[in-house]
Amino acid sequence: MSKDKKDSNSETSRRDFLNMTGSAVGAVGVAACAVPFIQSMNPAADTLALATIEVDISKLEAGQGMTVTWQGKPVFIKRRTAQEIKEARNVDLKDLPDPEKDEDRVQKEEWLVAIGICTHLGCVPLGQKPTDVHGDFNGYFCPCHGSHYDTSGRIRRGPAPKNLAVPPYEFVNNTTIKIG
Description:
By secondary structure, the protein is α+β, with helices and mostly antiparallel strands. The chain has helices at residues 3-39, 45-49, 82-89, 102-105, and strands at 53-56, 65-70, 73-79, 111-115, 138-142, 147-150, 155-157, 169-173, 176-179. It is elongated.
């Protein structure tokens, strides 16, 4: 074998080695940059810590409500009276902009659990306190643009397109609700 051919083969193998080494270093560099970027898209630690909350509802009497914060959002918990339950159940679904049965929105008829954010522009409606304006349907009222919700948190009048959202929740026992 001539010296020129031998030098040509060694140059080729050296070039292949340098290409593979350069590619490997480049891939490691891209991965080192990509990992922090991808991890920045994960939820913050404080949000994950609030993924679920347990709420003591033992002190709420019929007609009373409370607001808790879950994942940075207000959640309305209301112990409805027999009259409020009756009002919610006697609504003709054809009259609702976002038809949904009351039975599908609650797990126990006495308790309404809904995210307290108006579906129009994200305001927090009034109606949790006895002194609040409850709107034309005895539920919640968003004074910003005039959305009226009923005792089941369903939109009845105003610009809001959807009912108040119902978060995932369950009754741990008769006095505790787990949200999330």
